[in-house]
Amino acid sequence: MKRRTRTLIDLDRNHVWHPFTQMKEWRAEDPIIIERGRGNYLIDTEGKKYLDGVSSLWANVHGHRKREIDRAVKGQLGKVAHSTLLGLGNVPSIELARRLTAIAPRGLTKVFYSDDGSTAVEIALKMAFQYWEQTKKKNTKKKFIAFTGAYHGDTFGSMSVGEIDIFVRKYRPLLFETLRAPYPYCYRCTLKMSYPGCKTACLGVFEEMLRERRGETAACVIEPGFEGAAGMISAPPGFLKGVRRLTRRYGVLMIADEVAAGFGRTGHMFACDAEGVSPDLLCLAKGLTGGYLPLAATLATDRIYRAFLGKHDEFKAFFHGHTYTGNPLGCVAAIANLDVFERERTLDALKGRISLLKELLNGLADLPRVGDIRQTGLVAGIELVKDRATKEPYPANERVGHRVCMEARKSGLMIRPLGDTVVLMPPLSIKEKELEKMVRITRGCIERLTR
After folding, report:
1. Can you list the alpha helix ranges (DSSP code H) found in 187-345?
2. pLDDT confidence bin for 197, thresholds 50/70/90
3. Distance of CA 289 to the CA centre of its chain
4. What is the Cα–Cα distance from 127 to 150, expressed in whole angstroms?
5. Is 343 helix (H, G, I), strand (E, B) or coil?
6. S-S: 236 plus which of 56, 60, 199, 443, CB 3.0-4.6 Å?
7. What is the distance between the alpha carbons of residues 168 and 160, in angstroms, rounded to a whole number?
8. Segment 46-85, tens digit of pLDDT
9. Alpha carbons 200 and 239: distance in angstroms, whole number
10. Domains in the chain, ordered, with CATH?
11. Bridge partners of 382?
12. What's the pTM value of the predicted model, to 2 decimals?
């Protein structure tokens, strides 16, 4: 190990507190320190290359050091790095808003910027709540419906509509109550005895909940296409459309959290596009800037926007904001990202890669510890189980998913687990040979560590 790498590791241990990390274990290991990136690879301080199999936490789109995005950010640095949107406009934020509303699902015409996915969801929740406060004389619509297995971020509102216990358990006394509908986790569906089929079962429970609670429900928040942090749980075709149909029927707003699913991950620009769904509020982040800079956007309809219009002394404005709202550097990166989508016809090029990934994943089905393989577009989750016949999971302390992903690093593949689900979510720019390499390494690691 180089002296510089050792120095950086020591400094990291002394000063950096890592997210979602047990620091006692971290400090006992020699971590990888990333220094550079190029294309679909990350390069550490020792010069070793790693295929970025999770897009640097589901964010990178066109690869690292994409020339067009690099150039756009450098060009903006020659003008201004930041100016506030409080009482001012800036050129990149205006141009990006025009571009986003042109490609978003129909009816989403207004853009409110923030910094990350959690804040984008927080904003949507506050907008939905305030909308009803300002449109109903006596508002009773103060609750939200979210889904089992949901993850919407780590601020208090987004945690309240999230469910994954390890993320929210310690904070429950600080969170507001949320109604919970079943998301169709078909591999472990518990509703088949009551309803004919997982999708139908979940929609049936959801409609019953809306029928009983519509008078007190402000909005339903959902991850379209797949639930990410729950283990890449793919929703059956038609489920999202069914949710939208029911929210319209019972007068409940729909918030689509596409922080992870947006910008091509599912094979469509937005997961809502796959089923022709237009939500009332759409949350975007991660791939918005191509994985370059922290920027988020919450898109809203004119109907919602108009409810916030009024005289100054009516105090109907949306009293929410961030210092770096609409940051020009982030916005030009996002514009360049959209330019690349258009110029390279990224979505068209994805079709072959998605088909190849499906074929490669099918080759893992014979592994005795692979319980379920889920794929949505260029997103996959491989659920490992102790007993395939009974679907019995591994004990948590065995950390099988973690060990598989750590083993993959030895072969030059960077992936992360969600519990014992191994996640594959490479940049959209991944080449066919790189897809084959990613799945081949993953298979080998599963075989070696789950016998």
Report:
1. 198-213, 239-249, 302-306, 328-343
2. confident
3. 14
4. 20
5. helix
6. 199
7. 8
8. 999 999 999 999 999 999 999 999 999 999 999 999 999 9
9. 8
10. 32-62+346-449 (3.90.1150.10), 70-343 (3.40.640.10)
11. 373, 422
12. 0.96
